[in-house]
User: Which sequence fits this backbone?
């Protein structure tokens, strides 16, 4: 009786020390019959070891401050299994707005007619009011309770005004706009360098679910999602990944294809 | 395991990510960019991480995905670095032993998919099933990439095969 041949997968597993229990004898017997194979597998094992040592020996600096900051922010997020509706913890993502990324482009560029009207309106309002240093808001952050009542009355839903202070974004205030699908509440935030982020809320129905959609509108990055009865549109001139991180703090879910 | 216990290993995982990123991109700055891209994605998607899940495998899959979507976007495809390019462009490589430099230069000549399979298995103690999952491919595909990658690497190291500059990327 001849022993069954050993397949290449098992030879690879032999090199990696991943053979299932009880297969070692059979593989060794195979190598006894094919001594030329021993040399080949030995080279594989040597190269594997050299690759591992080589990549470990590269002395890649591990002191990049941005990487360190992001690592702390991730640890912070992972430690909080219970995510509040709005931000409740201090994460170090504030840095995000200040950093540029070489590769992004998760969003799709849609033709405008396919977008929910709140998104287009949010982008237009961002362009109009995002740069308005004279009168960026109608109601300042100081009148937050008034804003809550005003927005809730017009949108027909209880509206909360999220604080993004832990992200380094200061609420400047808001205004109420008239959109195609009803009133739109616009909130404007500003980072330390004066860059603006706007969040628009409307009760426009059925624009999607909690999972965020990222789009590019007129060179701006916009993300939109729906949470209960309210639709949200977040707009900034910032890379999509940064917008995504901010949106996730507001309760939006990251898109599946991110992972 | 609680999330807190898992997080204690985060620094270790990030160092591992950086090595894998170097194997994938072949450059120190590119590797750091890929690590940062991965961390931002992980922050944005942190809610999808199950308590008690495998943080290392989760992070490596995010990185792999970030790399694949990054190379798909880089157009036209990049040209594989030759040995000289490694020696000149990468000071850290010059500092390490010669045979280690040779094998890294050979690794850089492999097609992207084989390079990814080979370096992940060499660097991280994932099971084959986990490694296939990290790369989003069937187990059989991982095994054949590993086998082909190892054989090509052996031939390059033996000097049998001088792989000319060729287009890599674009394919998963």
Assistant:
């Amino acid at each position: 009786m001849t022993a069954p041949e050993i397949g290449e997968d098992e030879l690879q597993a032999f090199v990696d020390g991943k053979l299932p229990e009880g297969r070692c004898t059979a593989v060794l017997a195979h190598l006894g019959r094919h001594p030329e194979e021993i040399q080949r597998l030995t080279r594989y094992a040597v190269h594997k070891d050299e690759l591992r040592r080589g990549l470990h020996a590269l002395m890649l600096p591990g002191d990049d401050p941005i990487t360190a900051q992001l690592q702390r922010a991730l640890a912070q997020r992972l430690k909080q299994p219970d995510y509040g509706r709005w931000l409740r913890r201090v994460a170090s993502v504030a840095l995000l707005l200040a950093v540029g990324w070489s590769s992004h482009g998760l969003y799709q560029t849609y033709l405008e007619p396919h977008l929910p009207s709140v998104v287009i309106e949010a982008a237009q309002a961002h362009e109009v009011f995002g740069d308005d240093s004279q009168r960026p808001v109608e109601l300042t952050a100081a009148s937050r309770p008034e804003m809550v009542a005003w927005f809730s009355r017009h949108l027909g839903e209880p509206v909360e005004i999220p604080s993004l202070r832990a992200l380094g974004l200061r609420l400047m205030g808001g205004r109420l706009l008239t959109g195609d699908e009803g009133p739109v509440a616009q909130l404007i935030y500003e980072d330390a360098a004066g860059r603006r982020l706007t969040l628009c809320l409307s009760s426009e129905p059925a624009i999607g679910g909690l999972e965020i959609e990222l789009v590019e509108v007129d060179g701006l990055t916009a993300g939109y999602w729906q949470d209960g009865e309210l639709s949200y549109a977040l707009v900034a001139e910032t890379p999509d990944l940064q917008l995504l991180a901010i949106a996730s703090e507001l309760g939006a879910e990251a898109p599946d294809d991110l992972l | 395991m609680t999330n807190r216990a898992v997080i204690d290993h985060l620094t270790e995982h990030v160092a591992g990510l950086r090595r894998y990123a170097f194997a994938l991109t072949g450059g120190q700055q590119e590797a750091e960019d890929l690590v940062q891209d991965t961390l931002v994605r992980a922050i944005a998607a942190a809610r999808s991480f199950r308590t008690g899940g495998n943080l290392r495998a989760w992070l490596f899959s995010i990185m792999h995905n970030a790399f694949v979507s990054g190379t798909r976007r880089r157009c036209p495809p990049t040209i594989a670095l030759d040995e000289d390019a490694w020696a000149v462009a990468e000071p850290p490589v010059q500092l390490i032993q010669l045979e280690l430099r040779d094998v890294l230069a050979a690794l850089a000549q492999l097609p992207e998919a084989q390079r990814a399979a080979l370096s992940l298995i060499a660097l991280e103690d994932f099971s084959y099933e986990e490694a296939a999952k990290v790369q989003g491919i069937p187990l059989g595909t991982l095994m054949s990439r590993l086998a082909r990658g190892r054989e090509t690497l052996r031939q390059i190291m033996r000097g049998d095969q001088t792989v000319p500059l060729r287009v890599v990327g674009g394919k998963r």
